[in-house]
Input
Amino acid sequence: MKLTSIVIALFLSAFSAGASAREPEEVAGRLFLKLTGTPLSLGDSRRQGMIDLVKAGKLEEAARIATADPAFFNLTIRHWGAPLTNRAESPAIGLNDATAMIIGLARDQKDFREILTGNFTYGSPEVALSPYNDQHYAQISDLNLAKVLTRVEPQNADLDEAAGILTSRAWGEAHLQAGTNRRAIEFTFRQFLCNPLQNMRDGTIPDTRVHRDVDRSPGGNSQTYLTTCRTCHAGMDALVGAYAYYRFDNTGPFGAGVLQASKVQRKYNQNGDVYPEGYVTTDDSWINLFTENQNKQLQWRGPLSGKGIKEFGRMIADSGAFSKCMVKRTYSQICHRDLETTESAVLDGLANRFEQSGYKLRELFEQVAVHPTCL
Amino acid sequence: MKNFALVYRRFSRLVLMLSLLLLQSCGGGSEKSEPAAVSLAEGASATVGVKNFRQLEGSLRAVLGVSLATEETRGILKRLPIDGKADKVSSSSLLATVQLVGAYCEQFIAVELRQKSNARRVHAKVDFFSPASKFSPAARESVVENYARVFWQRMPTEAEKSELLTLMADIESQSEQPKKKLWEMLIGVCTAAGSSVEFIRI
Output
């Protein structure tokens, strides 16, 4: 224990000093290290170029050299994206289709909103790819993903409608297995708006869309429903229709993957005897009722109702909260701390630039890495 | 990996203590005295963390130019920091770091041993087939300086050089296997340099 205390104290004390004027060489080295996770070696041919750009005050151009390195995609983007693809939100998982999508979109400088709307996936053309198992990704996991990943369209020939990560195998395995698909909505908020469901609770939302499986008098107490259950279910159940035709099936003949039916999945109207007067799902329509009170800060833009998962993904991706969430996640990883609530100007500025860049994830990383509060 | 395991069991405490000593001297080494051409805002604060498990292994591969099979490292990687927050550093993660670095160092030294001396990046002045007693002071300094360039991208300070040379001497005096003494000294100094804060921080 004593050794641990000494270790941590020495470690933290070594980093307590604030920055003063720094050598361009040091700045260039730190920039490369932050973005790629690997050192810029003394013999590296890019070293002098980065130093010269730093001397000239062109920090973003110097950062661009770093983000062209394969390690930026293979280490940094992969580590950033992996928590978005599993229920434990851990970066320490094997490569899967969803992480591959994130790496591919970043490398190809696509509009990152496609991660919630696009009909595509990424894989290697050298290895057989199936939407019903992860063998492909296990085989390519240790390769240079920045080089081997190729965009594949459509995402899954058996799906009529795909929506990026929301219909990926990894997402389905995490959130569409058994249950009622509500977890998929909860984690969409949590991971792509950085807003846990409990922060969105709103007792003023009408409960006309709450399903029949929600007890209106749990434990014989209707107040519990009104003050607790309803505050989440009223909004969440109104949205979960977006997934009405989808489930994750690990018993099918092709393996385990996301399946889409032409009618509402049975799970949506199960346990109908709990409260028979509750809402019955008849199609994939959805309504966003999380729009008032504290939820105004999510900055919804565009339609707040629709049909199907792609339109739902579009609503999430177009929100101001999505841009800010991507900034927060990037800042936390690159700068090793979270933005303070007093730094809203920093958050807004970076989010605006992210949108103006066309939602380019690579440019977001560059802008964060050179920000004075980070470098 | 087997040789490193032996060295690790015998000298891990020495290596870890040296890593801690090198903590105190991090950030030094530059002999430049001319003013910086670029200065950051006075109010800017540097944010630092530690390399996460992916970055640590990626960095070792990048600087040493060798790689280990996933099966060899999987158990160690699980004990490394998952994210890069400095307050998540623990003695367990530091020991895992020493273990991982040591395994990579063993692989690297084995590769250098097979190369001609003028092709080696660190051990150009080392005669791998002579006993440790023939390992000259000049050759030892050369190894220390080269490891600093490889891991830290700079020359070591006099204090750092002294500490690493002392480590080599300590391993030499404590080693019980005359034929493996030199090997153990080299693994020890490589591991200490690679486990230092200067390398694991980000």
About this structure: The mean pLDDT of chain A is 92.
